[in-house]
């Protein structure tokens, strides 16, 4: 029987660290990528399934024990890092995919200043976590140097792991020489207030979360016009001819738009919600008049959802036939000279009389 593997030295997880981030740091000290380390450790177990391990939400307990034993860490300490335990009331649709995790550059700078490894925070995987409450700045889901969607890789510098953009290889900590970001401070503060309200709504045990999700889905539902290619929130802009940017198109008419939206569009969605429902984001039984009018323009995409605001079954059935057609058309390419947007100009100018 093979003796259990024990690594000579392994870093301890930080209390606010993602489990996968800690695994990356451990594996890097052995010159391995986390999946390779997982496979290697799994070789020490009998029924381990490596592909199940790197799961921040609900990690495989058997492989977690292997990692804990190899690193001389209390297994319960690793279990506590899982998102399922850290955020017990959170539904999966409010957690981002690992490939889309934004980061706070201020937190990375703090890691460097404190002389410790840089690491990924668990809060960054929450879809509603847009502003770092410590540094009061927007998270980044794009590289500040090359503007590509940010994928962080970690490499050693002076014995500690530092974050780099996987695409341009630029270091993600040093901000010296960049323009002053004070102009963004007010915007970030406003989004942070809304972000706190969203967290409050998600923790409530009444219908508020259902109403919040319905409101977001409706904002990103296609307009009820059969040839519309824009979501309902296009009307909020009061700009005729407003195009839904390509980067946000994937969210239109989806069940959980927040998961599919880039960070800045999630922030904008919160701002629109704040405008429609008030800064307290009160999703009470009575919908504000402006929101009611705006939402009445949505094609009903959610017939199977439980929502206290939805239409009657009869109304719903009468429009079901059109829903599929509108959704298909909303994703069809539209020629820029189709004049589709010209025809919709009369939609605008009624949101804020
Ligand atoms: Zn931060
Ligand atoms: Zn880059």
Radius of gyration: 23 Å
Structural class based on helices, strands and sheet pairing:
mainly alpha
Order of helices and strands: HHHHHHEEEEHHHHHHHH
Strand order within the widest beta sheet = 1-2
Uncertain spans: 303-312, 314-353
Q: How many H/I helices?
A: 14
Strand content: under 5%
Overall pLDDT score: 81
- Shape type: elongated
Give the terminus-to-terminus CA distance.
Answer: 77 Å
How many strands in all?
A: 4
Named once each, the bound ligands are: zinc ion
- Main β sheet profile: 2 strands, antiparallel
As a percent range, the share of helical residues equals 25-40%
Our count of domains comes out at: 3
Descriptors:
5% strand, 353 residues, binds zinc ion, mainly alpha, disordered C terminus, two-stranded antiparallel sheet, 14 helices
Which secondary structure elements does this structure contain, and how are they paired or packed?
Layout: H1 19-28, H2 34-42, H3 61-71, H4 75-79, H5 83-86, H6 105-113, E1 131-132, E2 137-138, E3 152-157, E4 160-165, H7 182-203, H8 208-219, H9 234-237, H10 246-249, H11 257-260, H12 263-277, H13 289-295, H14 313-330
Antiparallel strand pairs: 1-2, 3-4
Helix pairs in contact: 7-12
Bound molecules: zinc ion (2 copies).
